[in-house]
Amino acid sequence: MIESLLVANRGEIARRIIRTAKRLGIRTIAVYSEADADLPFVREADEAVCVGPANPAQSYRNADAILAAAKERKAQAIHPGYGFLSENAAFARTVESSGLVWVGPGADAITAMGDKINARNLMAAAGVPVAPGTAEPVAGVEAAVEAAATIGYPVMVKAAAGGGGMGMGVAADEAALRTEFDKVQAFAERMFGDGSVLLERYFPRVRHVEVQILGLADGRVVALSERECSVQRRNQKLVEEAPSPAVGPELRERMLQAAVTAGEAVGYRNAGTVECLLDPATGEFFFLEMNTRLQVEHPITELIHGIDLVELQLRIASGEDVTVHTDRSGHAIELRINAEDPKRFLPGPGKITTWVEPADARVDSGYAEGNTVTPSYDSLMAKLIVFAADREEALVKARAAVAGFEIAGPKNNLPFFAELLENEEFRSGDYDTGIVSRMRKGVK
Q1: For the domain 132-201, what is the CATH superfamily, name and number?
Q2: Residue 132's CB: how many other CB atoms inside 10 A?
Q3: What's the 3-state SS for 2-57?
């Protein structure tokens, strides 16, 4: 087993990793920016190193500073969490070439799945269902118009190097496509340094369902249950639940097998997620992307399977043979508590003057009373997770947990969740990725 671990992240996921590592007797080293010096993860680690100012490029994305901290504190391994450097193949390769253990998939798998076009073509070749779309980057807007005529409108315009819901637009006709193509290309060049764009068929009513996989040290790939991620704003997730209300036994078997095939196609090792679009009208599903890291929403999988995914990550990275229990029971729901306006979802940072967590719920939080949520990072403050014997009971627990969570200071989206949990469409389980837009139609 790894003996010392540097956690190259911040907030709730850093605390989450540190908690499991300490339970396993692993010495933990946190890295933090000047803006995060007072956050709980810094004091909870066995050691902590400041790696730069608030700007992520100078701290959490500063590979040289993080590697220097790992060497200085004699870390044996690095866990990147999610975001920042977690899907940076060059960093993963450098970590391993430096003699450190990288707690994640190999650099080749990250590279293979990091480019949307390459990933799509790999999956199609392996027999994983993919939506109709372009197999190569679109050369320009005229080529995009020509491709869309074959694919059929509406189309999704996507940055090939994008992720996390960033760099995407929908076009219902040629005029809209010309506008969206220019917008997505410019955004991709600015944000990712790569203006490559692809087109895919857009499904107006679709569900976002993903499968957790684990690539084991012996080369096998195991798929756990699916997660439903259709409650989104701006293509970014707000709520996840497991299992999906839309997936029955036969569909589940097909999705899990496709996820295993996807992992095997790239020799996947450690934790990863195969994301799919599900057409509820036909039961067809299509590969969307593969996240080569631990997901934000991993706790709901942990609860229905009775496992610790971070522990499994650490054991796999250590080369241990692990037994993965694929049996599941119950129902889990996760709500992402963000520092944002609950109506328009605009960021609302500020100092936390009240922070009281609810009873009978799991709260993975990055902050505590007295801390300040700054505009330098993602607005996620905590994840509120409930588990029960079935979905109805989980909804009851979720309502109680939202009502019992007290936050004052920064704006927060708890009022939105209170509204969602009473929403008839959501309560029925028959919802799709348009649910938040329908709830917020006409809201100013």
Answers
A1: ATP-grasp fold, A domain (3.30.1490.20)
A2: 12
A3: CCEEEECCCHHHHHHHHHHHHHCCCEEEEEEEHHHCCCHHHHHCCEEEEEECCCHH
Q: Which one, of 273, 243, 256, lies nearest residue 128 by Cα?
A: 256
Domain-wise residue ranges, the chain: 4-103, 132-201, 207-440
Say if residues 298 and 195 touch (Cβ distance below 8 Å): no
Burial class (CB in 10 A: 0-12, 13-18, 19+), 25: exposed
Q: What is the dihedral of CA 363, 19, 94, 296, to 10 degrees?
A: -20
Alpha-carbon distances, residue 272 vs 230, 264, 381 (angstroms): 19, 12, 23
Residues labelled catalytic: 293
CB atoms closer than 10 angstroms to residue 139? 11
132-201 shares the fold of 4-103: no
Nearest by Cα to 244 from 268, 213, 276:
276
| DSSP characters over 284-312 | EEEEEEEE-S--TTHHHHHHHHT--HHHH
Q: 207-440 adopts what CATH topology?
A: D-amino Acid Aminotransferase; Chain A, domain 1 (3.30.470)
Give residue for tokens 């209170």. Answer: 418
Record: fold of 4-103: Rossmann fold (3.40.50)
pLDDT in tens, 22-68: 999 999 999 999 999 999 999 999 999 999 999 999 999 999 999 99
Residue 262 CB partners (closer than 8 Å, separation 6+): 123, 126, 128, 213, 268, 274, 287, 290
**Confidence band of 162 (pLDDT split at 50, 70, 90):** confident
- The span from the CA of 231 to the CA of 435, in Å, is 7
pLDDT average, residue stretch 349-357: 98
